[in-house]
Specification:
Layout lengths: L3 H28 L2 H4 L4 H22 L1 H11 L3 H24 L16 H6 L8
Length: 132
């Protein structure tokens, strides 16, 4: 029905649109534009576009697995290309680790003098988070 190139094309179109939607909703969450946020659940939309995008990236990767294997095999023959690929891998892992290490933490309730959570904050917490 569809050639491999046509399948790739269709996946890339959907991946591009969903990716842009995920980026746009992420920016809306960051900058909190009240006019748009009143009509749409931006957080849920952002989460679901992220899930769909992740699934499409995995599908895209699987569809290109043979090509990636062949390219990797040919790159192993050239030390300069192999070094560049390894550098890209190390950079990517380092960037991911850096994003985790330096990302802002969630807002935790302020602790009292003895390290306990003040009673006013405990009353506002959902029952599942309260401790005895």
């Amino acid at each position: 029905m569809f050639s491999t190139a046509e399948k790739n094309y269709l996946i890339n179109i959907v991946l591009g649109v969903i990716g842009l939607a995920c980026i746009a909703t992420g920016l809306l969450l960051k900058f909190k534009i009240p006019a748009l946020m009143a009509y749409v659940n931006i957080k849920a939309l952002h989460e679901w576009t992220g899930y769909i995008m992740a699934a499409l990236v995995v599908l895209h990767f699987v569809m290109h697995l043979k090509w990636l294997q062949a390219l990797t095999k040919s790159m192993r023959q050239n030390k300069q290309k192999l070094a560049a690929a390894m550098l890209a891998l190390v950079f990517s892992v380092g960037l991911f680790a850096g994003l985790i290490a330096f990302s802002p933490a969630g807002k935790a309730p302020a602790a009292g003098r003895n390290g306990s959570i003040p009673q006013t904050d405990v009353q506002r917490m959902p029952a599942s988070e309260k401790t005895n």
